[in-house]
Automatic annotation (TrEMBL):
Keyword Nucleotide-binding: yes
Keyword ATP-binding recorded: yes
InterPro entries noted in UniProt: AAA+_ATPase, ABC_carbohydrate_import_ATPase, ABC_transporter-like_ATP-bd, ABC_transporter-like_CS, P-loop_NTPase
Residue intervals of the ABC transporter domain: 8-241, 257-498
PROSITE patterns: ABC_TRANSPORTER_1, ABC_TRANSPORTER_2
Pfam families the UniProt entry points to: ABC_tran (PF00005)
Upper taxonomic lineage: Bacteria, Pseudomonadati, Myxococcota, Myxococcia, Myxococcales
Molecular function, one GO term: ATP binding
Keywords: ATP-binding, Nucleotide-binding
Gene3D superfamilies: P-loop containing nucleotide triphosphate hydrolases
Official protein name in the record: Heme ABC transporter ATP-binding protein
Signal peptide residue numbers: none
Length: 502
């Protein structure tokens, strides 16, 4: 008995870049009504494979088949015409426009419709799909979860048959994750095939049907989600067993950082941070959670010399001697920024980026830069922190996002800071890199380094933190000992106008 071909087949896809084979004869099938997860470390080839499928890149060899017929994806427009849509990690929406106006981008001739006709058409075309927000709401007022679901609805208006989701829950609160997966389950029941890229193994096991694992550009395994375990997936991804993370040691006596009555204004002049008080002890990791726009961006910029503030900040009992990021670094304050682009120069080499903090001091030989020493030190850092790169002279822009993040963290920690302000330190990185970063932060805290950890990943927050706090509309709730607050409660503190830990 003949079986119908899969909805989508990638057959022996190969793609090389200078010094790197990103995809090495990778094959996978996606069936209608199936969720197929794609796992792998940063640099394993996941993004390249999805770029090829969506028409953003072309393979050196191999083919793509839709309904059993070979097709060529020359552009995203061609992919969309064949029913293949990509929902990116960061939604690409017009923030100042309404939900209806953004959905109009998914309709042929949508911008030529009257407002009344557009609303009627949207309700008709999205019948059976729950609208998670009012059509007249501006996108800038939506939560991250609502924006994510809006992107999916826009894809549905284009008649999507294959939906690619790139880290769909990376910026969502716990309360927003479940509605997203309910929406995906509904799409699955309608016959949509879903390719799901994630580093969160529990989500993958709970919500996917099949799982493909890539390592170093090659497909190293495929399994039914029901018939595999987290430990087996980790071993496939890393090529080894996971290393247990060290235990948190108690903080040391004293105060490393003290913040009193801190107020910070946004770029628009509004109060983004309102009368915040907290302290941080030597060897302590204090985790602060908050959804985007809650004031964490302005808080971090104030503490790292990037934004003026009112109130008092004391580092080791004294006001900072200077407030520029470079001068604060010489005083022992390091910073892993929210955006990788803010902490790197992509056109420079890996070695040059690793030396951005020290080139003008430790790496000077008279008026000249000691490039030989810079590259020797870069090789040591690359090996110590497991940065996957062909070499220290490779332009940083050619590395995967996760390896760029490793380079930023390695550079900041190489200076042996006494205070590290880290924003989303494992954002978008794989389980191996996350394991390494977590171990480094705990080990450095054991040695006495203080860490102010700002993240939307509540699992990470509770894994690493001695105490936790939540930012809501610029106000700090907490801190509380991590043992006294659970994930759900902290999630409510981040998103609801209620007070207290109870």
């Amino acid at each position: 008995m003949e079986t119908s071909p899969p909805l989508l087949r990638l057959s022996n896809i190969t793609r090389s870049f200078p010094g790197v084979v990103a995809n090495d004869h990778v094959s996978l099938d996606l069936h209608a009504g199936e969720v197929h997860a794609l796992l792998g470390e940063n640099g394993a080839g996941k993004t390249t494979l999805m770029n090829i499928l969506y028409g953003l890149d072309a393979p050196d060899s191999g083919e793509i088949l839709v309904d059993g017929r070979p097709v060529r994806m020359g552009s995203p427009a061609q992919a969309l015409r064949r029913g293949i849509a990509l929902v990116p990690q960061h939604p690409l929406l017009v923030e100042r426009h309404t939900v209806a106006e953004n959905l109009a981008l998914g309709l042929r001739g949508g911008w030529l419709m009257t407002r009344r006709r557009l609303r009627a058409t949207l309700h008709e075309r999205l019948a059976g799909q729950p609208l998670p927000m009012d059509l007249d709401t501006r996108v800038e007022n939506l939560s991250a979860g609502e924006k994510q679901r809006l992107e999916i609805l826009r894809a549905l208006l284009r008649g999507v048959r294959v939906l690619i989701l790139d880290e769909p829950t990376s910026v969502l609160t716990p309360q927003e994750v479940e509605p997203l997966f309910q929406q995906l389950a509904q799409l699955k029941s309608q016959g949509v095939g879903i390719l799901f890229i994630s580093h969160k193994l529990d989500e993958v096991l709970a919500h996917s049907d099949r799982i493909t694992v890539l390592r170093a550009g090659r497909k190293v395994g495929e399994a039914s989600a029901r018939e595999t375990t987290r430990e087996q997936l980790v071993k496939l991804m890393l090529g080894r067993e996971a290393v247990p993370r060290p235990r948190l040691a108690p903080p040391r006596p004293g105060v490393r950082l003290e913040v009193q009555g801190l107020e910070v204004r946004s770029d628009r002049g509004t109060r983004a941070v309102k009368n915040i008080h907290f302290s941080l002890a030597p060897g302590e990791i204090l985790g602060i959670a908050g959804v985007a726009g809650s004031g964490q961006h302005e808080l971090v910029e104030a503490l790292t010399g990037l934004r003026p503030y009112q109130g008092q900040v004391r580092f080791e009992g004294q006001p900072p001697r200077a407030t520029s990021p470079a001068e604060l670094f010489t005083q022992g304050v390091a910073h892993v920024p929210e955006e990788r682009a803010a902490g790197t120069v992509p056109s420079l080499s890996v070695a040059e980026n690793l030396a951005l903090r020290t080139w003008n001091t430790a790496l000077r030989r008279g008026p000249w830069l000691d490039r030989a020493r810079m590259e020797r030190e870069a090789l040591d850092i690359i090996q110590t922190y497991g940065i996957a790169t062909p070499g220290p002279r490779t332009p940083l822009r050619l590395l995967s996002g996760g390896n760029i993040q490793r380079a930023v963290i390695a550079r900041e920690l190489a200076g042996s800071p006494r205070l590290l302000i880290a924003v989303h330190p494992t954002y978008g990185v794989d389980i191996g890199a996350t394991e390494r970063v977590h171990r480094l932060l705990i080990e450095r805290a054991q040695e006495g380094m203080s860490v102010l950890l700002v993240t939307e990943d509540l699992e990470e927050l509770f894994t690493l933190s001695h105490r936790v706090a939540a930012l809501y509309q610029g106000e700090l709730r907490g801190p509380w000992p991590a043992s006294e607050v659970d994930v759900e409660r902290l999630g409510r503190m981040m998103t609801q106008a209620t007070e207290g830990a109870a």
